[in-house]
Amino acid sequence: MVHGRVSRLSVHDVRFPTSLGGHGSDAMHTDPDYSAAYVVLETDAEDGLKGYGITFTLGRGTEVVVCAVNALAPHVLNKDLGDIVGDFRGFYRQLTSDGQLRWIGPEKGVVHLATAAVLNAVWDLWAKQEGKPLWKLLVDMDPRTLVSCIDFRYITDVLTEEEACEILQQSQVGKKEREEQMLAHGYPAYTTSCAWLGYPDATLKQLCSEALKDGWTRFKVKVGADLQDDIRRCRLVRNMIGPEKTLMMDANQRWDVPEAVEWMTKLAEFKPLWIEEPTSPDDILGHAAISKALAPLGIGVATGEQCHNRVIFKQLLQAKALKFLQIDSCRLGSVNENLSVLLMAKKFEIPVCPHAGGVGLCELVQHLIIFDFISVSASLQDSPSN
Amino acid sequence: MVHGRVSRLSVHDVRFPTSLGGHGSDAMHTDPDYSAAYVVLETDAEDGLKGYGITFTLGRGTEVVVCAVNALAPHVLNKDLGDIVGDFRGFYRQLTSDGQLRWIGPEKGVVHLATAAVLNAVWDLWAKQEGKPLWKLLVDMDPRTLVSCIDFRYITDVLTEEEACEILQQSQVGKKEREEQMLAHGYPAYTTSCAWLGYPDATLKQLCSEALKDGWTRFKVKVGADLQDDIRRCRLVRNMIGPEKTLMMDANQRWDVPEAVEWMTKLAEFKPLWIEEPTSPDDILGHAAISKALAPLGIGVATGEQCHNRVIFKQLLQAKALKFLQIDSCRLGSVNENLSVLLMAKKFEIPVCPHAGGVGLCELVQHLIIFDFISVSASLQDSPSN
Fold first, then answer.
1. Disulfide: which of A102, A212, A291, B168 matches B143 by Cβ 3.0-4.6 Å?
2. How far, in Å, CA of A335 to CA of A251, rounded?
3. Beta strands in B254-354 (DSSP E)
4. How far apart are CA A50 and CA A129, in angstroms?
5. Nearest-Cα residue of chain B relative to residue A106
6. What span, in angstroms and rounded, lies between the C-alpha atoms of B108 and B275?
7. Which residues contact residue A350 at a Cβ distance below 8 angstroms, ignoring those fewer than 6 apart?
8. Is the ipTM of this complex over 0.90?
9. Tens of pLDDT along A354-385?
C-alpha cells in the first residue's frame, strides 16, 4: 500500500553537451544540448524510497523549467502519497488548474513540462512502493482505478469516462498472453541514431552500416533544411537498407503547409512510411491538409512530440490529421494525461508510436507503450514499429 | 532615426494583491493577484530614453516568466536598436526559434509571454525615439515596412506577405479621416468591472448603477461556475441595463463542448451578444462546434486572450470558430505577431475586440486597436464595442 508524506522535493538542472558532436541535431534544433529538469521526491516513510521524475529539455531554458517546478512544489509538499494517488484526477487538476499559475500555461509549455516532471516522480514512487515497474503497475490496475487518474476536462465530446472503461474492459481478453509476449520479445523499435541532420555523409554511412549489422530494420532520417541534401541523404540510406526495410522522415516543423506537400512529393520516390512533424505542432488543420495531400503517395503523417496536451491530440484525431500518433512521456502531463491520449487513439484506431529521442525518454516511454500494447491497443498491427 | 546599442535589460516581478477584493475573479481564476513581468531596456544613446515592456500575469508564476526573460536577454543585449528594428522579422524569429529554448515552447506559454515582454519594450523604445505614440508609429509606417516586422512562418497557407501588403494598401483610403475620428472621439469600449464572479450581488448592483450613470452601454458578466447563480446575475444586469444595451458573457474556459452549448442555451433568454471562452483555448474544433450550435440563438463566440500564437488564430478563422477575435497584447509575441493576426482577421472579415482586463493591458492594446481601425479594418461596423 502507498504510504508516507512528501517531505522533500528537490529539482536539478542536468545538461549534457551533445551539441559538440551534432547528436540530436535537426532542421529546427541545430545545436541541442540534451538535458533534463530532474525531480526527486522524498517521504517520511521508513522505506527510504524516493520518486524520480524528469522532463526532457535541450539545454538553455532548463533553469526556467526548474523555476516552474519550484512554483508547483507547494502543491506536493506535505501531502500524503495515499491521498495523492487516491484522488489522482483531483491532484492532476490541482496542479494544472492552480488559479494563478494556469495563466502562464494553461497545460502547455514550461508549466506543463514542470507538471510532467513532478507527476512522473509521483508515479515512480508509487510503482516502487508497490514493488513493480510502472508498466506492470498500470497493467495490474483495474479499469475503474485507471480512469480515475484521468482528467476528462475538455475531451468528453470525444471520450467519456464510461467509454474509457469499456475500452479497457474489452482489452482484458488476451492480456496475459500479450504480457508474456512482451516479457519474451520486448516491444519493436526503430532507430534515429544514424541520421541526425548534423552528421556528415561518412558518419551516416558508417552508423547505418553498423545498425544493419545490429539487426535494425527501421530507420528514421532527419530532413527539411535543404532539399538537395535530403535527396542525397535519403537515397544513400534507402540504397543501403534496400527496398524492403522501413524508412521514415522527420522535418521537425520546418515547413509551412504548401511547402510540406511540395517537398515531400519530391522525396516520395524513397518510399517513406511517414513524414513526421511536417509543420507547426499547433497546426491541426494544416496537418489534416498535408495528410490528405500525401495519402495518394502512400505517405502518412506522424506527429506528437511537441503536441502540448490532450486537447491538441483530440483534435488531430477528430480532423484525421495523422496516421501515427507520437505521445511524449514528459511533454504531456505524465502518465495521467498519456492514458487519456492512448484511449482516444484506440477509439480512433490510430497506432501509437512514442517519441523517445532524448534524455530518459526511452526509459520512460517503454512503460507507456508496453502498457498500451497489453491493456489498450492490444495490437502491433499497423504499428510504425512493425 | 533609431539609434543606440542595448546596454542593459532589467526585469521586475510586480504584483498587486487584487485577490483580497475578488477583483478579476472568474470561473477558472478565483483568486488572481493581477501582476506583471516588467522589462526595462536601456541603451548607450545619449537621449537617455528607456523602453518599457510588460507581460501580464496572475501572481504566482511571475517569477518563472522573469526567469524566461533572463534566458532571452543574451539575444537582446549589446544589439544595435537600428539592426533590431531594421530586420524585425529576423529578430522575432531569433527570439522564438532559439534552437535550445524553443523546446520549452515553441511560441507558447512562459517563453512566449517573456518574448512579448521583451519585444513590447523594443517597440516602446522605438516609438519613443521617433517621438510618437506606438499607434502613430504604426499608422505612419509604409505597408512594406509594416509587413517586414511579421514572421509569416506557418501562416502562408492563409496569408502571404503580398496579400498582407495589398490589405494595407487598400486601407490607405480614408486613413486621414479615421485618424481624425480617433483623435476626436477615441475608440469605443465596454466594461467588465461591474460583474467579476467573486462580487456579491450588492456590489454588482452598485457598480452597474454607477457604470450606467457614467454612460457605459456595453456590459460583460462572468459566468460558468454555477448555472443558478448565472441566471440570477444575468437577470439582474439585464434588468438594470434594459433591453437595448449590450450584454456579453464570459465563461473563462470553464466548460466542455457539450456543456457549453447546454449552459448557453439556458442563458440565451438574456440576449448575450457573445459567449467568451466557452471551453479550452486550444480547442479550435470545439469552438467551431459551439459556434455552429449557438448561431441560431443569435449568440456569437468570442475568444483569444489565451490563444497562444498566430497559428491558433489562423485555424480559428479557417474553421469559422469565432465571431469576435480577441487579441492579447502580451500573450501573442508583441506587436509583430499581433500585426499578422489583425491582417488575417481582416481577410476573414472578423472584427477584432482586444483583451484588456489586466495590469497594463488597456494601455497596451489601445495602440493596436486604434491602428487596426485606421490602417487595417477601417470599420467599427460589427465591432463588439459598437
1. B168
2. 27
3. 272-276, 300-303, 324-325
4. 9
5. B109
6. 24
7. A317, A322, A323, A324, A325
8. yes
9. 999 889 999 999 999 999 999 999 998 755 54
State mean pLDDT over B144-170: 98
Sign of the CA dihedral with A106 first, then A108, A113, and A115 last: positive
Rounded to whole angstroms, the Cα distance separating A284 from A314 reads 10
A104 → closest Cβ in B101, B110, B258: B110
Grid coordinates in use for B30?
Answer: 478565483
- For testing contact with chain B, the best of A64, A96, A312 (most B CBs within 10 A): A64
Distances (CA, A) of B124 to A274, B112, B329, B374: 46, 18, 13, 20
Q: Would you say A321 and A284 are in contact if contact means Cβ atoms under 8 Å apart?
A: yes
How far apart CA B255 and CA B249 sit, in angstroms, is: 13
Q: What is the pLDDT of residue B23?
A: 86
Using alpha carbons only, how large is chain A's radius of gyration in Å? 21
Helix axes A62-72, B109-130, angle to 10 degrees: 110
Helix, strand, or coil here: B123?
A: helix
Write phi, then psi, for B2 (nearest 5 degrees): -65, 145
In angstroms, rounded to a whole number, what is the distance separating the alpha carbons of residues B175 and B254?
40
Q: Which amino acid is at B323?
A: K
Question: Which residues of chain B make contact with A251, given a CB cutoff of 8 A?
Answer: none
Name chain A contacts of B107, Cβ cutoff 8 Å: 282
CB contact under 8 A, B289 and A61: no
- Residue A184: which region, alpha, beta or left (left: phi > 0; alpha: psi -120 to 50)? alpha
pLDDT digits (tens, 9 = 90+) for A23-80: 888 888 989 999 999 999 999 999 999 999 999 999 999 999 999 999 999 999 999 9
Sort strands B35-43 and B6-15 into parallel, antiparallel or unpaired.
Answer: antiparallel
Beta bridge partners of A56: A36
Beta bridge partners of A55: A37
User: How crowded is the C-beta side of A179, counted as CA atoms within 13 Å?
Assistant: 14
CA A336/CA A146 separation, integer angstroms: 9
**AA identity, residue A147:** V
Cell numbers standing for residue A110 = 514550461
- Chain A hits for B257, CB-CB cut-off 8 Å, are 156-157
Do the Cβ atoms of B61 and A103 come within 8 Å?
Answer: yes
What angle (nearest 5°) sits at the alpha carbon of residue B118, between those of residues B117 and B122?
Answer: 115
Amino acid B34 reads Y
Indicate the burial class of B154 (C-beta count within 10 angstroms; 0-12, 13-18, 19 or more).
buried
Query: Are A385 and A326 a contacting pair, CB within 8 Å?
Result: no
A75 annotated active-site: no
CA distance A73 to A275: 39
**Which neighbouring-strand residues pair with B40?**
B10, B52
How many other CB atoms are found less than 10 A from the CB of residue B7?
12
Q: CA torsion sign, B86 to B87 to B91 to B92?
A: positive
* 3-state SS class at A314: helix
CA–CA separation, A179 and B293 (whole Å): 46
Assigned C-alpha cell, A230: 535530403
State residue B324 phi and psi, 5-degree precision. Answer: -135, 130
Provide the pLDDT for residue B386.
Answer: 36
